[in-house]
Give the backbone structure.
Amino acid sequence: MENIRNFCIIAHIDHGKSTLADRLLQLTNTVSERDLQAQTLDDMDLERERGITIKSHAIQMDYTYNDKKYIFNLIDTPGHVDFSYEVSRSLAACEGALLLVDATQGIQAQTISNLYLAIENGLEIIPIINKIDMDGAMVEEVKDQIVDLIGCKHDEILEASGKTGLGVDKILPAVIERIPAPKGNVDEPLQALIFDSVFNSFRGVIAYFRVMNGTIKKGDKVKFVNTGKEYFADEVGIMRMTPEPKNEVKAGDIGYIITGIKVSREIKVGDTITQVQRPCKENIKGFEDVKPMVFAGIYPIDNDDFEELRDSLEKLQLNDASLVWEPETSLALGFGFRCGFLGLLHLEIIQERLEREYDMTIITTVPNVTYFAYTKKGEKITINNPTDLPDPTYIDYVEEPFIKAQVITKPEYVGSIMKLCMDKRGILKNQVYLSPTKIELQFEMPLAEIVFDFYDQLKSISKGYASFDYHMNDFRESDLVKLDIKLNGENVDAFSALIHRSKAYHFGSRLCGKLKELIPRQQFVIAIQAAIGAKIIARETISAMRKDVTAKCYGGDISRKRKLLEKQKKGKKRMRQVGNVEVPQQAFMAVLKLND
């Protein structure tokens, strides 16, 4: 165990984690030159196309230093705020972290957030400045920022370029010297932490674990403590570029286990594995259940695909433990699922993966967040869907979630960013200059306001020079109302939204206007109304397609024309009573892009 090092790479999105991981794999000859490609560890097409890491990836490397052989277990982590749950799981399996900072961008919001996560887990931090080969690199300035942030010495900060490989050879010796070897005892009862799992259609569920104490051998009878289920270890091994079976995996190592489990619910990320004969005395603590931030309905376009969608979501949940879902029904869309996500990018990625990997065509409803409604009897009701909100006469008050938001930007964009946050009902809490060219703003904001397009607007007004991070703060009482959309007097529950009273009229009138453009004309008049309870606050009308019934009346008395028009009017009225309005798929999508 003296010669094992477990570490991960943490950074803000797009600071070069995956590129640096490629160079480390090259340096240790873990991957042959022929198999090496950009973002080697990212195995999803989606990750390569967008240039982001969505899943954490673990790999074992061998390295010889001063005639001693070392084993490195490296975990490459995502950088986007929506995937911070992946980062927290990876940190639990490591003793150290490489903190990567882009020499052209400096410290950004997610850098600070991930750094604090690592410090809470008691990890040894090795600061590295990446992209030093770039024209706009500000090496000395960024070094000063890192020194201010973590209090290290100037000469402890490594300089590297993941793209050219410059300075990468100094990183692995630093890992050996600075990151401690894992603690643990091979002779103790088995105690291993599951930090990830994937689904393989041939082998079933593959769980990735870190052994804290003891040894796990092929053929052992093991128990998953939280679920209480017992299995035989059909195969155990370590992760190279392809899984490598071994007879045993010992304390301090990271490995995988295949037990033939076919049902996703039987494995929980954060669970403890132990042996049935010699169980460990206590679970590994410090793992919490994921708390979804944003909720949306996912429905199959064809109701016959409901069961297929359920299977697809179950398999996705194995690859992505932060996805939460339960079945629900909608009057407009039929049977589907209410899903919980960590953010809007997470929702977009899940939607795309369902379409690509499982060939599902789906409709996604308007995203919303969790609220608490308190009735006049003192009952507390959790509202994940606007249709769950009781009648306003029974409600005493409604609470909505607030977040602590952290924006790091250049001083020239402070005014426009403040205006954006204030428009979103934000409260400025603090303003700190990190350096003469970098300022940190701290806000408290309602989560519902940032769900739609806050991140995109922030990027556009700051020309890409603002980074954003947030975490949950508390729930606060707010003046919220339920906005319903009615088509010819019928509520369309998929368009319902809980919204602050001050913004209800603006949102309702824009939504009615958008629907007027997208819903095709019928043979009868369609009234589109936005309503709060019984009060109509906005209305648009789609006029009927009508035949010119008076065309054949040339000359003669006007009463002939009137008679024909009255007859047509009665027919339209009758048709309106029995007619159904079909809402096209793009109308549901348009609601998400209302602020474009």
About this structure: The chain has 14 helices and 31 strands. The chain has five domains: 4-178, 191-275, 294-367, 372-478, 482-592. The first helix runs from residue 17 to 27.
